Known about the structure:
Blueprint: H1 4-23, H2 30-58
Helix pairs in contact: 1-2
Amino acid sequence: MTDSGSIITFVLVSFCLAIILIMKKDSLPAQMKRYLALLAIVMVSLSFVLILISFFGAGK
């Protein structure tokens, strides 16, 4: 994963998804809200891991 452009894109998309879910939480159906929230948690967690990996890999 040396392509920083794809990492930055993934991080932006995952945080945007989380922000949109927070803003639209009242208008989403309960069943869809649950699955989208789980997807957003997984994506944001993976984004933090990718950010840490890229920071530690930058010193090499």
